[in-house]
Write a structure and sequence with these properties.
four-stranded parallel β-sheet; Rossmann fold; alpha/beta
């Protein structure tokens, strides 16, 4: 048996946990390749026009994986905390994939803390579906959570090292599936690195400081994954020279969170880049050049 892991959306939050869990159970898995223009094209053919860029990319990864594995992991997440919710894409992704691709087998779990469907029980469920006992699945999940914790601690350490440098420091702020995507975030990262910029990523904020730092800007953010971005901005803004926000059009939660950040930035140099299509990045590079020139010139808009 081989499980397919689409390298998009939730993958960039849960890959360390997923892979460690399957490794503990000795279950084989395959990841889709990095996003390419072909991936996006395949996804567009299966998407409605109103779908965000990240969702189109996700469906492209599903198409690339569907003939290479026995099952594709497609979780459904509604809420990770009782008083919050995640993006509607994560609410509906299981139904969307199931109805779009009739010929694939889906390995699914559901997390909805509001209705007492916890992450732990979700992983026990998929373990049972793969033929493992509750004890085996629970133990694999416990070990996988330790791997996940180590991953985030390593990211925190990377941020501390990046902040020590004498280079110009920029906070790259956005969802991990935007920042780490080969077609979106990678082009920005490559450009910044070529210009000798030290990059700090929003997902590198210490996990235990998210709630506190988010509350410094707003105590009423409804979308869990946007809290990380808002908190990261508050935590890092005085430690970096500027912030670049990356977002995919038309993301509703991002439009609210990004506006909140921009209004609270005061004189902190901030650039918002919104990606709707990726056929031409000339305009993006031009804006990046202007932003870096502004930082070097000490101009604060």
């Amino acid at each position: 048996m081989k499980i397919g892991l689409p390298k998009a959306l939730l993958y960039y939050y849960y890959a360390p946990l997923w892979k460690a869990f399957f490794d503990e159970l000795n279950v084989k898995y395959i990841e889709s390749s990095d996003t390419t223009s072909k991936t996006l094209l395949l996804g567009k053919e299966k998407s409605i026009d109103e779908a965000c860029l990240a969702l189109k990319i996700y469906l492209g990864h599903i198409r690339e994986l569907k003939d290479k594995c026995d099952y594709i992991l497609v979780p459904r997440i509604f809420s990770l905390k009782k008083t919050e919710q995640v993006c509607t894409n994560f609410n509906c992704i299981y139904d969307l994939v199931k109805n779009t691709f009739k010929d694939i087998k889906i390995l699914n779990y559901n997390i909805d803390v509001k209705r007492h469907y916890t992450e732990k029980n979700a992983f026990i469920k998929i373990g049972k579906e793969l033929g493992f006992s509750i004890i085996e699945s629970r133990n694999a999940y416990k070990k996988a959570k330790e791997v996940e914790k180590t991953y985030y601690l390593q990211e925190e350490k990377k941020a501390k090292e990046a902040l020590k440098t004498s280079k110009t420091k920029i906070l790259l702020l956005g969802h991990p599936y935007i920042l780490k995507d080969n077609l979106i975030g990678k082009s920005i990262i490559n450009y910044l690195e070529k210009n000798n910029i030290s990059i700090i990523y929003s997902y590198q904020i210490p996990r235990d400081l998210i709630e506190f730092n988010c509350s410094k800007i707003s105590t009423k953010i409804h979308f869990t994954m946007n809290k990380e971005e808002v908190a990261a901005f508050n935590y890092f803004k005085d430690k970096v020279d500027g912030t670049i926000i990356l977002t995919a059009f038309p993301c509703g939660p991002d439009s609210l969170a990004n506006e909140m950040i921009i209004r609270k930035r005061k004189k902190h140099p901030t650039l918002l880049l919104t990606f709707e299509d990726l056929t031409n990045n000339t305009a993006v590079i031009t804006r990046l050049e202007s932003f870096l020139d502004m930082l070097k010139g000490g101009i604060h808009l």
